[in-house]
Write a structure and sequence with these properties.
- This is Pentacotripeptide-repeat region of PRORP domain-containing protein.
- The protein has about 260 residues and is an all-alpha fold.
- It has a domain of about 100 residues.
- Helix 7 runs antiparallel to helix 8.
- It is elongated, with a radius of gyration of 25 Å.
Amino acid sequence: MDRVEQALEIYRMMISDRLGPNIVTFRILIMDFVSYCRVSNVSEVVELSSEIEKLEILPDVITYSILIKGLCIVGKVEEGSFLLQKMNKDGVLANSVTYNSLINGYCKVGNMEKANLDICSQMNEYGVEPNVITFSTLIDGYCKTGNMEAVVGFYSEMVIKGLVPDVVAYSALINGYCKNGNIKEAFRLHKEMLELGLMPNKNCHVEYARGVVEQSTTKIEAPTPPTGHLKTIKINNLIALKWFKDDEKSNEKLLNSRNQG
């Protein structure tokens, strides 16, 4: 019997012994299910939420937010969005945690229209201030879809609000600019990131190196920022591949010129 089954067993014992569970009981159960991030667990959580209603216990913002996060983790974003609507009907005001879970869920499935125009707009409508996580999630989502115009817009809005971008935002921006061939801007952001004491993640390092390598016209060494953290096997492989392709092109040109002569 795993932890989830043990929790359910205790809950059933409470019901059979007529020890009325309260909102804290349900919250603990839901948190336990969600922490395991299994689809079956989330289904059980939905059933628990129905039992909460039967017992006429009103879920609070924490309970709703945990449940919505769990649904989004397993890809059931629409169900999470439905719960947000139910929250509004029940007069339970969602907070930034609630909205951020849904924004992240929609970004992961590539539905940026829902993430931005629906959830983020509703967030503003209800007076919930977007935070660093909100902006970073949207920036990352739009970078993955290649919409750099939207990325720049959210980044600018973030700075205007006095919010400092985190590792997720910087890494997404650097990746986005590298993929679009704007190495100069990627380098500026990479330098700015390091000056703020933020360490880029592995994907950011690789994309940054890839961008520098692909834009270079001559053989180069591994791009090494002040930390000297970019010399990984994958990056060196990228550089080796670049050298090989350049040499291959040179040899082909030489062979063609000789044949023509």
